[in-house]
Amino acid sequence: MMSQLGELAGPATPVHSVVDTSVPGPNGAVPVRIYTPSEGKPLPVLVYYHGGGWVIGSLETHDRTCRSLAVAADCCVVVSVDYRLAPEHPFPAGVTDAYAAAAWVAEHIGDYGGDGSRLAVGGDSAGGNLSAVVAQLARDRGGPALALQLLIYPGTDAADNSPSMIENAEGYLLTRPFIDWFINHYLENPADIADPLVSPAVTADLSGLPPALVITAEFDPLRDQGTAYAKRLADAGVPTETVEYEGMIHGFFQMTGVLDTARDAVAKSGTALRAAFAS
What we know:
Elements: H1 2-7, E1 17-25, E2 28-36, E3 43-49, H2 63-73, E4 77-81, H3 93-108, E5 114-124, H4 126-141, E6 148-152, H5 163-167, H6 176-186, E7 212-219, H7 223-235, E8 240-249, H8 260-278
Parallel strand pairs: 3-4, 3-5, 5-6, 6-7, 7-8
Antiparallel strand pairs: 1-2, 2-4
Helix pairs in contact: 2-8, 3-4
């Protein structure tokens, strides 16, 4: 499924350079791929976490998406993170790698033409979940400072049973049985479903988090939890923009080769990143 979505992104967008390397994590090296859209002065950085239910997905499945984001932002290095996947590496392995990568980028991306003082995190689905989690960890651990969290149909509440989870449980690519399968592989201990590092929506205080762009899809089981998290961010005083794409399904963001709506979502993400980095 993930490789097919990657193919729907269309031809790979050319960028100035693509570098595969790794960053040190507390449990070993974490592979990353660094996309630099142009040469010249140091560019701000988006650390991107791919989707796939914490079980599937890779640097390759989201290569074209990361290229598109680098160009859409017009001034942004994108660092794609190949965090460890379950079931071989269950929670909290992915969270540990995700935070370690963001912290490393803040300190060392200057070696690759980036400006670690202007940093954002983003991702789709499980990657949106990791972005929200990393944003909370960065706040609670005193860094790195983040200019934006780009949350693309994020999973924010693993115990969610909202109307969209029921209405869109079947027939729209991501099904409720698939969601349950992913969570069961990700969590060794079912009680972890209530851990904020799994379900960032259970965090009581969302104040002080970085500004957010939350993108949701009408026919997505995760729609309501994304919308609810965005509302709680806004209620906590976090500058938040929420965009629901009508008629769209989970995964549409990667379909830029076939959907004008996907291209619009990528362009909107680029606009949000430029604005965040300029402020």
